[in-house]
User: What shape does this take?
Amino acid sequence: MRWRTTTPVVEKVDVADDPVICGKKSARPAIKAAGGKTRLLPEILPRLPKEISRYHEPFVGGGAVFFALAAAGRLVDAEIHLADMNAELVNLYEVIRDWPTKLVKKLRGDADFVNESDAFYRVRAWDPKELSPTARAARMLYLNKTTFNGLYRVNKKGQFNAPFGRYDAPTICDEANILAVSEVLQDANIHHVDFEEVCKGAKSGDVTYCDPPYLPLSTTSNFTSYTSDGFSLGDHERLRDAMLDMGRRGVIALLSNCAAPAIRDLYSGKRFKVEEVEAPRAINSDASKRGNVKELLITVRRSS
Assistant: This one.
């Protein structure tokens, strides 16, 4: 199998005088992620081993589980593979890992990166393919901090089209956390590949956590398209098969998903352990309709 990846560590980060990186404060996810797992960590973390030597996350998104495991010291000297099909997100993580100070300078030095509606739509219209990796990452991070609820949504042409968030004072450039995230990512392999390639690379005893784009719970709730290709029921079936394959190979595999009937049907076999938990619903234009929703945590039974 051939990974499409970059070699870690292009620019060394000076951490000697930085209390954030020196262990007094842990790195937090660099981005806000719709459907992020921060509030579900008390349910997810106990279901993963205390010590992990090889870790795979095929849908890294905001990386809440990865950063929590790193902060808890559960990934010390681990081989880490983080992947996503969102090219802008992958580029952002690569830039944070390799060129964090350049990213900070770009965020602070560009007059367009301000919390104003006109600036937001001007930056949103930029074509990321015409930007340098650092400018592309700065655009992604700026839009994430100023768009509605951190929502990442693209149209069929792959163009970002989520609206301005109208926050009072969002932190667009959190330098301390960018440097902390960079340090945590120094030993991480970051891939822009389909989830199947990541799952196939997992070996017996490895840990894989999967947090795919969820199926909509209703016909009106499918308001996000994470990539221009979307993530179909057929993709969920491929993921189910990848989970089964990992179980047969002795991989410790955990998956989170919504409690939609189609997902329950997919994982109804004896090979799966399905547990229902409650998670806060963070996204709704009407705040009164935000509350707890049922989600599923699914583990595959490994072959002995």
